[in-house]
Amino acid sequence: MIRIDRIHYRYRAAPQPALDGISFDIGRGSVYGLLGPNGAGKTTLISVLAGLLAPQDGGVAVDGEPLAAWRASRPTAIAAVPQDYAFYPMLTVAENLDFFAGVQGLSRRQRRDRCAAAMAFACLEAVAGRRAASLSGGLRRRLNMAIGLTGAPEVLLLDEPTVGVDPQSRRFMLDAVKRFAADGGTVLYTSHYMEEVEAVCSGVAIIDHGKVLAAGPLEELKRGGAPTLNLGFARPLPEALVANWRARFPDMGVRDNAVDFPRFPADGLAPLLAELAAAGLAVERAEYGAPNLEQFFMQLTHHSLRD
Amino acid sequence: MASSPFRGPVRLVALWKKELLALVRDRHGLAALFVMPAVFILVMSLALAEPFSTRQPAAIGYAVLDLDSTPVSQALDEQLGAADFFEKRERPPGEADARRRVEAGEAAFVLIIPRGFASQIGSNRTPSLRFLIDPAVPNTLREGFRQQVEAAVIKVWLAHVLERLGQNLMIPELRRVTERVGPPEIHTEAVGRADGEVFAPPSSVQQSVPAWLIFSMFFVVIPISAVFVGERQRGTLQRLATQKVSFSLVLAGKFVPFVLLNQAQAVIMIAIGRWLVPLCGGEAFSLPDGAQALAALWLLSIAVSAAAVGWALFIASLARSSEQASILGGAGNIIMGAIGGIMVPRFVMPAAMQPWTRLSPMDWALDGVHHVMLRHGGIVDILPAAAALACFGFFALAAAVFLGRRVRC
């Protein structure tokens, strides 16, 4: 449905492009994950898809038609749901929905129907008359999403829609995203919660420094990842040993008493375990095999902090 | 997708409705727009009632210490009392007591008539008198009292001269000439543009209602920036942009409700001046007669709104936080009010400072209002002020659009 084709965008006075030849496809009725470290270019790409920024090179096509032309005939077909609570705290839930439906130019009847549908979708009927300022974090997230649905969009751009909510609200949001896709909607979903992405997304694009590092069906990507070794210990590792390993395995990650070795060769397992035995270190837990999404993501983007 | 055939107007109405709802729920903004000017109008109209009045300032009192105690000095005392401008207080027994009374604020002035005053008058020598004055009394009042004393002395001296002349010429009636001739009757009229009509001078409420109304209209900066900065910080403006709501449309959505709000302010403040101020003991505010004058005022009010809302949108676009907007907008308004003749009337300022008032849009607005309210002019007379205000609003709005686009890019 959506073809992102070699998009290039560079902000004025920025030394590096924010998007540097990004390309991938999103199928209709799918939930597609967009992953990347902070500053990778996710927000810029969403801004391009939402029509806020025009790519300086390349383009986006929807159903074979350029994005701008496609949107001109369907002004409300793409809705962006930002990470911020982008609504009016002094208005009630119903007033917020009515306002955002109104600024899309919907007639009175359309507004009434769409607002009722969006409110039902996000289960907000019980709080329709409450001011948004008095809502809990979970209800605010639901209102934020419901506003995005007032235009009955075909494509939903969700930017970290579950930040700061309790597990129940998160589960509700993920189910809502799945329902939207099951009804034929297409979702581009960005999140830093990898388990969420694994739970709802059928495809994923991982980007960094404005480039696509990997894109495609989720399971295929994970299968294509190099095997990862994960070891857990009862006590912290000696610093000398960690330094030694770092020199030999630069991609290695250390967290608490656990160590990740991305792209670890199978024939290296026995020597490493022998090395641990010689050092008198007991392994509490060991995992070896295809990486999960987080491990795959870390393999591609490396472990270093970005900001 | 089937959208309404009236998409543009529907969007604008949605923006207006949201703005009005946000406004009526912003208690601080409403207080700044309605309570503050109402209090200002009430307080300033009552506080400045005396300086604008032609009647005597009751609070300014004087006493006479007559050390001469002659019929001539008593005549001076009586003449001064007959002027009926300052309030005469009880005669002090001596100079020490006179000083104490001035220090205590019981009398603003004490006139000391020294011994030998009558003989100075009788021998046609320049009489000498002494004043004790309260340093807190303004110079204009001191000067007024001095001139009253001078006039009274001249009258006493004239009576003496006429008496002597009457004696020499054997015409005793000459003495009574000064008794028959009272002070001249002076009728005051304000100069207006309407030909042949006579107008009463303006009262304090006629001055303060327009001045504080203009000042308060510029305080739309508080509610506008509160909503606007919040919209930017919460990402609502970005969200509206993704819904193809242009920044110009967002500004248009704010412009009209706040112009209407300004008009509501004007009506309410005029009502306060007309009905509430008299209830509190002040004079009632009155609008000029005639449809042309009212149309001129309405046109001017729209121009002030355009300037105020344009200015508010510029400040809101410039500020990064609502605190910054309140400081920038509030301080900007106070400076405009200070140099624009709102807080201190232009004619009271030193001559070197008066041209600077022209820098303030509030001065342009006040000038226009004075043309209608005090000089009884019409639409033609306020056109320059209205045009200047509209241009100011337009350029401020253009700057806001420029800043807004820069931020959103």
Summarize the structure in words.
The complex is a heterodimer of chains A (307) and B (409). With 307 residues, chain A is α/β, with parallel strands linked by helices. Chain A has a domain at 226-289: Alpha-Beta Plaits. Helices cover 36% and strands 25% of the residues of chain A. Chain A has eleven helices and 14 strands. Chain A has helices at 42-49, 67-73, 93-102, 108-121, 137-149, 167-182, 194-200, 218-224, 239-248, 269-278, 293-301, and strands spanning 2-9, 19-26, 31-35, 57-62, 65-66, 78-81, 155-159, 186-190, 203-208, 211-217, 228-233, 253-255, 258-261, 283-289. Chain A has a six-stranded mixed sheet with strand order 6-7-8-3-9-10, with helices on both faces. A four-stranded antiparallel sheet of chain A has the order 2-1-4-5. In chain A, strands 12-13-11-14 form a four-stranded antiparallel sheet, with no helix packed on it. In chain A, helix 3 packs across helix 4, helix 3 (93-102) packs parallel to helix 5 (137-149) and helix 4 (108-121) crosses helix 5. The relative contact order of chain A is 0.14. Chain B is mainly alpha-helical and 409 residues long. Chain B folds into two domains: 7-51 and 194-408, no CATH class; 57-180, abc type-2 transporter like fold (3-Layer(aba) Sandwich), CATH 3.40.1710. Chain B has 16 helices and four strands. Chain B has helices at residues 7-24, 27-47, 49-52, 71-82, 95-103, 117-122, 139-169, 177-180, 204-217, 221-234, 236-242, 247-279, 291-318, 322-339, 361-373, 379-408, and strands at 61-66, 87-88, 109-113, 130-133. Chain B has a four-stranded mixed sheet, sandwiched between helices. Chain B is elongated and about 105 Å long. The two termini of chain B are 28 Å apart. The model of chain B has no long low-confidence stretch (mean pLDDT 83). Classes of the chains: A alpha/beta (307), B mainly alpha (409). At the A-B interface, strand 6 and helix 3 of A face helix 1, helix 10 and helix 11 of B.
